[in-house]
Amino acid sequence: QVQLAESGGGLAQPGGSLRLSCAASGFTFSRYGMSWARQAPGKGLEWVSGIYSDGSVKYDADSVKGRFTISRDNAKNTLYLEMNSLKPEDTAVYYCAAVSAPLCQGPYDYWGQGTQVTVSS
User: Fold this and answer.
1) Beta strands in 41-102 (DSSP E)
2) Computed from CA positions of residues 60, 61, 67, 72, in that sequence, does the dihedral angle turn out positive or negative?
């Protein structure tokens, strides 16, 4: 059974940091491109960051460039998102997604359930 389980969300102050994790199971994680996406209240889904299956190439949305870092550990079947210099506009539910290709572009085959990130003082 395929599962993507996000964790690490919570409340952070503006300027603070959080680290999200996405634990994968039920498929060969090292063969899948992975991405993070988010959905803010009342808004559509926004792609945030992507990483190739081997971790060699990463992409970030302009809105998070220089503040967020995507990474993966294929030995642990886990995807990460290090979020620094958080802003209130980063408040959203964050999802990880997997695509059965070396690249990290959609459409995605699997999605996690999401983890809430709230940035507020």
Assistant:
1) 45-51, 58-60, 68-73, 78-83, 92-99
2) negative
The phi-psi region of residue 74 (left if phi > 0; otherwise alpha if psi is between -120 and 50; otherwise beta) is: alpha
Collapsing DSSP states into helix, strand and coil, what is residue 116?
strand
| Strand duo 115-119 + 10-12: pairing | parallel
* Cβ contact 109:98 at 8 Å: yes
What integer pLDDT is reported at residue 103 of this predicted model?
86
Alpha helices (runs of H) in the chain, residue ranges in sequence order: none
Strand duo 45-51 + 110-111: pairing: unpaired
102 falls in which pLDDT band (50, 70, 90)?
confident
CA separation for the pair 44, 54 (Å, rounded)? 29
pLDDT at 1 over 90: yes
Residue type, 112: G
